[in-house]
Amino acid sequence: SGHVQLPPPQNVTLLSKDFDMILTWTPGEGSPPDVTYTVRYESQERMDKWIKVPRCKNIHRTSCNLTCVLPNLFVKVRARVKAVSGQLQSPWVESQFKEYHLDVELAPPVLNVNVKENVIHVNASFPLATCVESFSWMYDLNLWEAGSEDKKQYEGIFRKNTVTIDTTALRGNYCLSARSSFQSIDFKHSKFSQPVCVLLNPKG
């Protein structure tokens, strides 16, 4: 056809990041400043049926969060994106297939540490989308004396559970760190969070 086409989006990637499934791309070289993007996705349950994503129609940003748009988190999906400017459109560009449940990448949890007399209460918060809250997210917690390599480990704690640690025998500076874990076909883990350190039972 004799139509001038817009440059297509580049680096189109469906990536699992910090508990979410997100389509990202970069503008095609020489894209006009007013360019917008529209995204659709396709599930392996129904190949050749590209489904609209209302929240990612004519958007200016270069990403689209598909996590809770996906009807089935246990089926591979892929997405595609095109650029639009006035009457002009680019060709669609497709991502690779990904499945949320198998490909999910975990972020470290954020630790909330509450120091009381002779105990510490620790819980972890996760930046989860509502549609994946029911998954069996867990976390592992480490406790160690600052400067020591000897870590006490608490493993497989359900996401909403608080760990209570008796600190009667502990004195000095202690640090806590946690990682998210998730059981799919194999165990997945995030990196450990930045340590949170607390001073316990200071003398006097």
Automatic annotation (TrEMBL):
<dbReference type="InterPro" id="IPR036116">
    <property type="entry name" value="FN3_sf"/>
</dbReference>
<dbReference type="InterPro" id="IPR050650">
    <property type="entry name" value="Type-II_Cytokine-TF_Rcpt"/>
</dbReference>
<dbReference type="GO" id="GO:0005886">
    <property type="term" value="C:plasma membrane"/>
</dbReference>
<dbReference type="InterPro" id="IPR015373">
    <property type="entry name" value="Interferon/interleukin_rcp_dom"/>
</dbReference>
<dbReference type="GO" id="GO:0004896">
    <property type="term" value="F:cytokine receptor activity"/>
</dbReference>
<feature type="domain" description="Fibronectin type-III">
    <location>
        <begin position="8"/>
        <end position="103"/>
    </location>
</feature>
<protein>
    <submittedName>
        <fullName>INLR1 protein</fullName>
    </submittedName>
</protein>
<dbReference type="Pfam" id="PF01108">
    <property type="entry name" value="Tissue_fac"/>
</dbReference>
<dbReference type="Pfam" id="PF09294">
    <property type="entry name" value="Interfer-bind"/>
</dbReference>
<dbReference type="InterPro" id="IPR003961">
    <property type="entry name" value="FN3_dom"/>
</dbReference>
<dbReference type="InterPro" id="IPR013783">
    <property type="entry name" value="Ig-like_fold"/>
</dbReference>
